[in-house]
Amino acid sequence: MTRKHCIFWTVMVLALALLAAQTALAAGKPSNPYQKRVRELEARVKALDRTRIPYLRASQQGVKLSIQRQPTLTETGLFTATLDQDLIDSEGPVQSMDVSFYSMDPAGYFSTEYLVTDAQPGETIESCLFVAAGDYQLVVFYYLKEGSSYADILTFTVEGDGSHPTLQQKVQQVLSECRVAGDDWQTALNLHDWLTHHAYYDLTYSYYGAEDVLLRGYGVCDSYSKAYQFLLNAAGISNERVTSNTHAWNLMKLGGQWHHTDVTWDDPSGSTAAVSGSESHDYFCINDELIYGMLDNGTHRSGATATGRCNSLAQSYPVHTGSWQNEGVYFDDTWNIQSYGQLFIDTAYLGDATFTVLGNQNYPISSSGGSYSYWPAGSRKANLARYFYAYGLTREGLTLEDDSVLKVAVSYNTSDLFFEVSVLGWQIEETGTLELPADLESIADQAFMNTAATTAQIPATCLSIGNEAFKNSDLHWISIPNAQTSIGSDALAGCSPLIMIAPDNSPAAGYAAEHHILRFRP
């Protein structure tokens, strides 16, 4: 084995060990022992509101709540809950007691603290330290024999002190920083990034409310998903909160379609403070296939409340921003990094062709000082990058239908880790090439409007192409080699399908981008 390969495999072993450690840590992140119990209690509290009369009748002869010390923003409160002795005498001792503090928000999502205790009636209950002023509820359930429970709600107010923003004020502050007028996608992304940059996951599993990640700066997945829901609501973006047996995340509707977004899993794990620089967008606006398949780590699929609704990746970060093109790289047989995109372009010039790109080496994710850090080819990150690349390749004007220039089929074999890209051929009926003088300096307005020519080679001497010069012609292929050649705003209007060959950063390249024309470099 060569020295080069020894170094490579040493790096790979270390990378695999690090990945295994990160995966083990991340896999446990949203799956805390109280998650399901918290949701059960939330559902029970909401049911209590809907069936308030029978519970209150029970409470009138059962639970009695009282405040011993009023909570403030700087001091915890003390409460007592008593239960009629007659109930204990007739139904046996208290088996368990649930205590929770909720805000009065209509959505019922501001769960500030959750306690499960074996406390007996009459014992003192200490509140959490509240971080937002407002009206709250103390909800207490006593469970005696099976099927017998008694509950009561006590409403109290935590007064503002001028130094703590209310939750509503915090939401509006974040929204003012993140909203982009007329662009729901960018607004949703900015809100997502605000949470991942300003909060961290609560490894004590103590904080479940929206105000926890927004005001405390930490919380569990319930906190992230509730906070994101309130931010999206304030921004006017359609959304829902989704839960599985052990996790919570969000759905949101952008571009007329629903997408999964998991802010928790896009935030670094294992921190005790907000960490910036390690956040990702892997779980931003993805589909069912990804979140319940390739990216599932046992936290999403089991007991999920939303399936079969998210089928698009059009709003995902790599596809929406076009970054899939930058992630399309692989190692060739000589360990040199190559571009899928350039290989496609090179092959496309050949007409009908099929090529296969192996992905069974390693995937570079960063470069510094000439050395690379690697993800193993079968890792989640490498698979995800290839998945988005294949989706982008089939979406960005390359998988074409009846009115298109090229027809391309892309398949990705997850187990064998390779792309197979078939260029199925040019869908152009050639009828003629436009012959132009070798020393031509300009093309006048409307000079070749409605021409039957399908191919035009613009001479390198030409510096301008006039407005509507080729409008509504049969032109399918135009080469503009001079990087200085200007092109009129409607010079190629009505020419479809069309391929342009033009240098990067040229006026013609700008025209191609603006008019969504497939362009290759000369």
Helix and strand content put the structural class at: alpha/beta
Beta-sheet strand percentage? 25-35%
Please work out how many helical segments DSSP would assign.
Answer: 14
Number of strands: 27
Counted up, domains total 4
> So, CATH architecture of the largest domain?
Roll
Order of strands side by side in the largest beta sheet? 20-22-24-26-27
Cα(first) to Cα(last) distance is 41 Å
Biggest β-sheet strands, sense, barrel: 5 strands, parallel
Return the CATH class of the largest domain.
Answer: Alpha Beta
- Oligomer designation: single chain
CATH topology of the largest domain: C8orf32 fold
- The geometry reads as elongated
Radius of gyration (CA) equals 31 Å
Task: Provide the low-confidence segments as ranges.
Answer: 1-28, 396-405
The amount of helix comes to 25-40%
Mean of residue pLDDT values: 76
Description of the structure:
This protein is of the alpha/beta class. It has four domains: 35-158, Macroglobulin (MG2) domain (Immunoglobulin-like); 167-320, C8orf32 fold, CATH 3.10.620.30; 322-426; 428-522. It is built from 14 helices and 27 strands. The strands form nine sheets. A five-stranded parallel β-sheet has the order 20-22-24-26-27, with helices on one face. Strands 4-3-6-7 form a four-stranded antiparallel β-sheet. A hairpin with a 2-residue loop joins strand 11 (248-254) and strand 12 (257-261). Helix 7 (210-216) crosses helix 8 (221-235). It is elongated and about 105 Å long. The protein starts with a helix and ends with a strand.
